[in-house]
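Exercise: predict the fold of this chain.
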Amino acid sequence: MASKTQKTESIRAKKHRSNKVNLKALQKSIQKNLDVLSKVAETK
């Protein structure tokens, strides 16, 4: 069984790690926004 310190360290490490699913969703939405902005820039 892991010690309390080891459990605490692993929990803190998980909290500080980026969530890959959220990062991918964020990247997709940013790309969509860039596409829209480039289309708007072309029309002006």
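Check your answer against the key: Residues 18-44 form one domain.
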